[in-house]
Amino acid sequence: MGKSLFEKIWERHVVKTIEGGPSVLYIDTHFIHEVTSPQAFNGLNKRGINVFRPKQTVATADHNVPTLNQHLPIKEELSRKQVEALIKNCDEHGVELYGLGHPYQGIVHVIGPELGITQPGATIVCGDSHTSTHGAFGAIAFGIGTSEVEMVLSTQCLLQSKPKLMRINVEGELNKGVVSKDIVLYILSKISASGATGYAVEFAGSAIRSLSMEARMTICNMSIEMGGRCGLIAPDETTFNYIKGRTFAPSGEEWDKALAHWKTFFSDADAIFDKEININAAAIEPMITYGTNPGMGISVNETIPTAATINENDQSGLSKSLAYMGLQEGTAIKGQKVDYVFIGSCTNSRIEDLRMVASFVKGKKKADDVEVWIVPGSKQVEAQAKAEGIDKVFEEAGFVLRQPGCSACLGMNEDKIPAGKYCISTSNRNFEGRQGAGARTLLASPLTAAVAAITGKVGDVREWPL
Length: 466
Prior knowledge:
Distance between the termini: 46 Å
Number of strands: 19
Largest sheet: 5 strands, parallel
CATH class of the largest domain: Alpha Beta
Helix content: 25-40%
CATH topology of the largest domain: Aconitase, domain 3
Mean pLDDT: 97
CATH architecture of the largest domain: 2-Layer Sandwich
Number of helices: 15
Low-confidence stretches: none
Structural class: alpha/beta
């Protein structure tokens, strides 16, 4: 019987299987940041041990950093202390740190791929749920808790139970104005925010294969929002071309060896999945969320569901979500007033996302009553945007290209959305208070966010020249 992509990687990394229990899984790359690592390092220090394999650990500061005036001391005390602790811990344990001011600094799930650290067939973990992003390269990548961070730092291994396997096939051509964020929001709207709970999800099909690597990362990033343990896409020529020549990618003879190895990672034709879902790409339209979990999404031209049209188990959740969002069931989402637009996060802050937005807004001006935050995912993205003149396009439109960080994806830094205000966000979560206490978040693609930045309300990008 054939094996799936996940099984091929998993089996190569199992050190030991405990009878009737989990497996000891070897971890190739461990990313850390300032939020979930301090307690783990404290645990090591109390036990009097060092990081077992520091060369396989990569650190950056991203969650708590400001996105303006990064050369100045961090104002928020907790954020400042966490960043200072990361610097101290990495120095003491010999871990490479890309901190503020470093040319490689950025959001952990942006810098790994762009530096060539993220590679096919690997196991990758980080104390952050959206580690699933790296699965776009044909890797098993998932988030872990603080105690598990300590386990990996001290042993380079992790206890893990093998998940069930799901494959989501997206076949056909995408419509005008539909991008990868719309694909994943559409899938979420169909299977719900818990539809992949307990599964490792492989995304396949012609529509997935047609995507760029940066678009694939968006898909895998939000596999966790379906409840998935991780998301994967089989590596192909698009993958290999993206990695080649990057800072930490193999070169010369090592590249040839790595490429031959990477080409073995795909699901066999007779691989068995516990569940398969088929999606018609032509049915996907520009999407937006209306509620307080990423599965509560609709096309920008649809009306908000009513209690009568949804599953009985979800009815109480609908009422609670709409009360928080200040929206009414059965009404149109198109035309909804927007106060803030946030384009950034580990979901949509790469150079392709910024190019997409700049292409749309060039020659236009933002709505007077909308505040627009453009936050690049890394120093390299920021530098490239400036080299291409994207910053000037944004400046002329009334936007500001800020400095790298997680920013308004989550309320852990200075970039918070005020209570009661509506924000169209290219991030991955719209939970209550996620972007700040009382903030109202509508998740959407960079293109849909760009429309809102120009018009001040939810709109359909297909109504504009593209």
